[in-house]
Amino acid sequence: MTDATATSAFATLALAPELLSNLETLGYHEMTPIQAQSLPLMLEGRDVIAQGQTGSGKTAAFGLGLLSRLKVSRFRVQSLVLCPTRELADQVAGEIRRLARGMHNVKVLALCGGAPFGPQLGSLEHGAHIIVGTPGRVDEHLRKGSLSLAELNTLVLDEADRMLDMGFAEVLDAIVAEAPEDRQTLLFSATFADSVRPIAERMLRDPASIEVASTHDESSIRQLFHRVADNEARFEALRILLLKYRPESSVVFCNTKREAQEVSDALNEHGFSAMSLHGDLEQSERDQTLVMFANKSASILVATDVAARGLDIEALDAVFNYEIARDLDAHVHRVGRTGRAGSSGIACTLYTEKEDYRLTKLGEFLEQTLTPEPLPSKSMLTREPFYARMATLQIDGGKKDKLRPGDILGALTGDGGMSGSQIGKIKVLARTTFLAVERDVAKTALAQLMNGKLKGRSFRARRLKS
How far is CA 196 from CA 112, 187, 457, 459, in A? Predict the structure, then answer.
């Protein structure tokens, strides 16, 4: 792995003036370590393997790299970014569009499963420069002849280890077989697991390898390890910790889908607002869960590592490891989700005496001596459970109905008489809209939406249960 240092100002790079001026507008002045190490290599045309955690700035790194190679006057697909999940693909497409604002008429198209196929066909017929998509849907378009990679110059595999975890190895091979051999290939991964090596050897040519440390400040995260007697005591310990720290936003990591669901159900039975995130959820359930957690309508997300990978969860106050992660790299990834952007965070890990050997292995892996600490007093269990601050309302109308966030905000703060500070995130999708409002005004807001009008029309609305 390279340990090359680089001047951290974007202005030192051979980027087009319109990209540099837009970066200034966006407030991007200094490069993150992964950007400083990978961008000069990308601009030279090298294949790159970059290992870095979520939040390291990798999207801007490869986004600037592919935009630098783009010939806008050539209206053909020149770049393809493959992501494991629809949520990550949407985030990546949005970031690339932001980076391309200074360039004239750059078209970025998202092709993801879980979305209707027909509209994607129409969009492809109108052409695109950059495709961001999930492997299954991209492969489907290639097989049906609606997508051509004949003029592709840059292929990006984002969260490559996650895509392999999800069983996409054969699909990735099929997609790469449709791409020119002289393309540039960029592979980004949170971990460089053994499963990633074979695919890197097959798909990349003489790649430069980069590994950067997690972007969070280690001192901003307080790690605590608590030994519990058995599995029954494990759940009680989780309740004690939640009631002591009372995080507004936290993730409980479990090692299996079944455990994630059981822990989520049990927390709700004890009065907490928890939601589960695992591979058995339908796409619509997953979308709804992520929206509600992001807008703080659920304070606790109980997730498996695979389901949580690729999610950009902001302002996470705490992480709770219900068990020590089976993959020690995953432990680092879990803990790195809190204490970001200058904020402090806490990470609590529970284990039984039978798992002592795993704590020892984790300590060796982290090159630290990990010492268990006593749990807070059981008197914490007498405290009232805390509830999510916000509630989520769903409106049966979206972009196709010409709805915009401003229409909803205006309806609630105008005739509805609400304060803007009582309204949280508004996410307008194609046919539906999710709206966060403070819990104590949810009834008022719902009544206004159901009885009032948006764009001169009436829309059905409901409150989602958290």
Answer: 23, 10, 52, 48
